[in-house]
């Protein structure tokens, strides 16, 4: 699961910075997904250690009588632009000072290599599978790591246009295992009606609004 909306009035690319919590809308998103999962056979809930992920996981765990575990492997991707305003369509690509960090979109040169994200996210998935073997687990993470591990499992290239990620706020990307092998991947958006239109998967950018900041 991707976490819900974050309180971020200044539009900072917050990345792994502490102190960024869910907004009121984000808490409603988390509650909506908890209700959606109420009838599922969930025996393990784990989240990135960042506040927004832990807060998103909390209502799901509470509904199933569980504690929220933390797994650092589910954390947001590292990014050189963390702490700055750097969003799709905000002119950041035209700033000469940013160019050295944008030289290689295939790795990428501005942050944690895609393949490193695959390794840690696959390990986190496997650990959650083992913790809930025979049942279901919920892992709360962040948009880029979720999209990268899904792309790997579905055998797509890892470099991509960020505007084409199918990973809306509070969405569920489901990996189904048979034994130790992933046999299918699913995607749902239980809180879609709560997500602002310009932040939905596949939405076109609205003037003056970015699609998000390292969420």
Q: Helical percent range?
A: 25-40%
N-end to C-end Cα span: 12 Å
Question: What is the beta-strand fraction?
Answer: 5-15%
Report the order of strands and helices.
HEHEHEHEE
Mean pLDDT: 89
Spatial shape = globular
Largest sheet: 3 strands, parallel
Uncertain segments: 206-214
Strand order of the largest sheet: 2-1-3
Rounded Rg: 17 Å
Number of helices: 4
InterPro entries: His_Pase_superF_clade-1, His_PPase_superfam, PGM_Phosphatase
Pfam family, one: His_Phos_1
Protein name: Histidine phosphatase family protein
SSE map:
Layout: H1 24-36, E1 42-47, H2 51-63, E2 68-70, H3 114-131, E3 136-140, H4 143-153, E4 172-178, E5 181-188
Parallel strand pairs: 1-2, 1-3
Antiparallel strand pairs: 4-5
Helix pairs in contact: 1-2, 3-4
What is the gist of this entry?
This is Histidine phosphatase family protein. The protein has 215 residues and is of the alpha/beta class.
Describe what you observe in this structure.
The chain is of the alpha/beta class and 215 residues long. The chain contains 4 helices and 5 strands. The strands form 2 sheets. A 3-stranded parallel beta sheet has the order 2-1-3, with helices on both faces. The chain has a two-stranded antiparallel ribbon with strand order 4-5. Strand 4 and strand 5 form a beta hairpin. Helix 3 (114-131) crosses helix 4. The longest helix is centred in the middle third of the chain and has 18 residues, at 114-131.
